[in-house]
Amino acid sequence: MIRLFLTRDGVVLERGGVNRRPPASLTLDRVFTAADPVGAVGQAFDAAAQCPPPGEAGLLAPIQNQEVWAAGVTYLRSKTARMEEARDTGGGDFYDKVYDAERPEIFFKATPQRVVGPNGKVRIRGDSSWNVPEPELTLALSSSGRYFGYSIGNDMSSREIEGENPLYLPQAKTYAASAALGPCLVVTDELPGTETGIRLDILRNGKSVFAGETDVGQLKRPLLSLAEFLFRDNTFPCGAYLMTGTGIVPPDSFTLDHGDEIRITIEPVGTLRNSVA
Description:
Blueprint: E1 2-7, E2 10-15, E3 18-21, H1 28-33, H2 37-47, E4 49-50, E5 59-60, E6 67-72, H3 76-85, H4 92-100, E7 105-110, E8 115-116, E9 121-122, E10 131-132, E11 135-141, E12 147-155, E13 157-158, H5 159-164, H6 169-173, E14 179-187, E15 197-204, E16 207-215, H7 223-230, E17 240-243, E18 261-266, E19 270-276
Parallel strand pairs: 6-17, 8-14, 9-19
Antiparallel strand pairs: 1-2, 1-5, 1-14, 2-3, 3-4, 6-7, 10-13, 11-12, 11-17, 12-14, 15-16, 15-18, 18-19
Helix pairs in contact: 3-4
């Protein structure tokens, strides 16, 4: 396992507490398009010179020209929340049916320019009064569809707009600064175990206003099946990230406010911190 950090000065690789800076030719696009991304990163680490660990202030989202997609209704808690959102419009049955269907819900989330990095500012929509973060294990998939690691994703969402009508999903999900990734990309052939924890903390004026946790074992669908559906009849010349759904949903009475701090923790990725613009 190697942790790949993208900084303003380029890539830093970390393994076993040792940090190394590979040549500038090792870009995220080179990694995502390699025939063997794990092997390519391992070789780059072995050949690189040692360097200091990256400072948190200089971290960028680990993305270059990759698209970000997302899967929905993969946890029971997510299904329940989405049905509650749509209960007044009669759309709740859609989420009940997709939870049990063979085909998952998969939707486009963000272009790279819409993705915020560690310590950056995510946004809530100005035309929505009910907005939440969605903490998600996020798979890294090469241009050939090969799984080679994972990161932390924040799928910012307008529950109000999505609840009005399922056809409004793109507006509820995709807008400026609607996604965050980081603080690093864990490069590995191994999938996260079912015991892998996911934790969400939201602070307002320095005080906790919501905290929740779940684990990967609560996912209804195998992780690689989500990746397989994403690549069906689709191509990603520079690879893609796939958010795998959320199992942590704040209560209906909660909405994000400007200045809130969002912390999402998945080890060994670390903690993704963002504030609300």
